[in-house]
Specification:
Blueprint (H helix, E strand, L loop, with lengths): L14 H14 L3 H8 L10 E4 L4 H12 L4 H9 L12 H10 L2 E2 L2 E2 L2 E4 L5 H4 L14 H11 L1 H12 L7 E5 L3 H12 L3 E5 L5 H6 L8 E4 L9 H6 L5 E4 L9 H7 L2 E6 L2 E5 L3 E2 L1
Parallel strand pairs: 1-4, 5-6, 5-7, 7-8
Antiparallel strand pairs: 2-3, 9-10, 10-11
Length: about 280
């Protein structure tokens, strides 16, 4: 792996722009910056070879610089690469490119990693007894569950729907699959925009909370659970015309897009990374 690329990003010239955005992100990260200041002199993580499979945002860039101090969005990736930290990622990468980027992180200066940061790891290997190293699941953190999950999803969800569709949310019925911390946050965000909320839930504790909200069939459907097969073909067949279907769960397995592609009479790219598909009805 000694001949591998030192980094691969969309445009390294975006680094100067990234530095400006980095300053803003640092001011928002009131826990991480004091940690950097407190532990940088001790080099607490000296000797660790850390690889990460993370969303390449400005906040991730701040985290990476902090990890270096203590031992994609494209401009975030650029500023990190410019600092001499190997980073592989760019906005809009395809599945094959994503896998290539992942492979590049497996070695560190011809040595294997001894620490991995992965916000997509749900400890499946740990549960099955196959993981041979220590794993700390970020989702087990109280602050992650009680702060980031319910609050961090609110702005991206509504912002994503508005940018993708430019529809008015007020007055629409929004159906949310899952009444965990993410589902609760999504409900609060959409309700704040004037939507009428339905929440579906199978957990015996969360279900009564979900039952406190009721409405008619949904115009906007959001999956939040991170499990497979939440919205399937039979659900598409029962949807209202012009339904907006979106996923804020961690993976793209919650919605049966394959069924939709195979049964669509017509498919159109109506916006950047937004597709409209017609079966007998029209879904976005």
């Amino acid at each position: 792996m000694s001949d591998k690329l030192p980094y691969k990003v969309a445009d390294i010239s975006l680094a100067s722009w990234g530095h400006k955005a980095l300053d803003v992100a640092e001011n928002e990260m009131l826990g991480l910056m004091p940690t950097r200041e407190m532990y940088s002199a001790s080099e607490l993580l000296k000797g660790t070879r850390i690889g990460g499979c993370l969303h390449m945002t400005m906040e991730t860039a701040v985290l990476i610089e902090t990890l270096v101090a203590v031992g994609a969005e494209d401009h975030a990736a650029a500023v990190t690469a410019k600092a001499g930290i190997p980073v592989y990622g760019w906005k809009g990468d395809m599945d094959e490119e994503y896998l290539w980027c992942t492979e590049q992180t497996l070695y560190f200066k011809d040595e294997p990693l001894n620490m991995i940061l992965d916000d997509g790891n749900h400890n499946g290997m740990t549960t099955n007894g196959k993981l041979k190293v220590l794993a700390i699941n970020v989702n087990d953190s109280v602050t992650k569950g009680k702060f980031y999950n319910p609050c961090g999803c609110q702005e991206p969800l509504t912002d994503g729907i508005k940018w993708a569709t430019d529809v008015m949310i007020a007055g629409k019925a929004a159906a949310i699959a899952g009444c965990g911390n993410v589902g609760k946050g999504c409900a609060q965000a959409l309700q704040g925009f004037g939507a009428c909320i339905i929440i579906t839930e199978i957990d015996p504790i969360n279900a009564p909370q979900a039952a406190m909200e009721a409405c008619q069939e949904g115009n906007i459907l959001v999956t939040t659970v991170g499990c497979t097969d939440i919205i399937l073909g039979q659900h598409f067949e029962q949807m209202k015309d012009d339904a907006i279907v979106c996923n804020i769960g961690h993976f793209d397995v919650e919605i049966d897009v394959k069924w939709l592609d195979e049964n669509a009479v017509e498919k159109a790219n109506v916006h950047l990374q937004v597709y409209g598909e017609w079966t007998e009805k029209w879904a976005l």
